[in-house]
Amino acid sequence: MSAFDELVGIMEKLRGEGGCPWDRKQSLESLRTYIVEEAYELAEAITNGRPENIKEESGDLLLQIVFVSSIAKGESRFDINDVINGICDKLIRRHPHVFGKESAADSDEVLRNWERIKLGEKAADKSSDGGGKSSILSGVPSALPALLKAYRVQEKAAHVGFDWEKGNTAPLFEKIQEEIGEIKEAAAKNDSASIEDEIGDLLFACVNLARHLGANPDAALGRANAKFMSRFSEVEKSVAGSGRDWAEFSLDELDDFWNLAKEQVG
């Protein structure tokens, strides 16, 4: 028996007669929170770069897929074999340069072909039920965090050629400066709606720049958050060690603690 078959068997036992009451009680709807949580924990483990954590969190996420398939099987919808066969068929269909007679010069062309094939599949699905042609962006989940969603919609648009010129970041820097200027104008008018709108445009432009420089903005912001929290923790220690209350410190004094923290923790 393979390790995967053993995992499927364990889940079937947990959800079968005489199994675990909690596992038997779960539904597809109740698993949604756990699926999102496990995906984020795996992403965090990858960011931290600890192989043992990555391995553990990969197992936790895999468990959710097996769990979903077990529930669906009990409802006569599909089973884990249907899931595996579906992704195998999709991978073969969307890699004609490997499994077919097409060619792809580089990864960018692979991604363009992927989106072209995917759009064709969606169009076929729509036409079969009387719907219209699907959008290139329709595959981006609406529930994605805004920063990650901006990155993915930009990527998908870029795959079909709707993008800034590759290798030329000067216009992107100019766009960011333009958006900063528009924020200043909105702030001068104290127009809260325009301020929010222009800040959104600035963030979107920054995501574009990050993408063109080969940086994942979501991961970059995650590291910035972790860096700030680590430094601020040192500031808290300095304040606590002084025996004084936060309100007794001037901003300059707190800034001195911050600079010291930067030297200590980077």
Keywords:
266 residues; mainly alpha; Helix Hairpins; 3 domains; 74% helix
Structure report:
It is a single chain. Helices cover 74% and strands 0% of the residues. By secondary structure, the protein is mainly alpha-helical. It folds into three domains: 3-135, MazG-like (Helix Hairpins, Orthogonal Bundle), CATH 1.10.287.1080; 170-213; 219-265.
> How would you sum up the global shape?
extended
CATH architecture of the largest domain: Orthogonal Bundle
Can you tell me the CATH topology of the largest domain? Helix Hairpins
Total of helices: 12
- Beta strand count: 0
CATH top level of the largest domain is Mainly Alpha
Gyration radius, rounded: 25 Å
Order of helices and strands: HHHHHHHHHHHH
- Stretches where pLDDT is under 50 for at least 5 consecutive residues are none
The tally of domains stands at 3
* CATH homologous superfamily grouping of the largest domain: MazG-like
> Sheet bearing the most strands, described?
none
Mean pLDDT reading:
92
Alpha-beta classification: mainly alpha
- The helicity comes to over 70%
End-to-end gap: 49 Å
Taken as a percent bin, the fraction of beta residues is: under 5%
TL;DR?
It contains twelve helices and no strands. With about 270 residues, the protein is mainly alpha-helical.
Task: Write the SSE topology.
Blueprint: H1 3-15, H2 21-25, H3 28-48, H4 51-74, H5 80-93, H6 96-99, H7 107-128, H8 146-159, H9 170-188, H10 192-212, H11 217-242, H12 251-265
Helix pairs in contact: 1-4, 3-4, 8-10, 9-10, 11-12
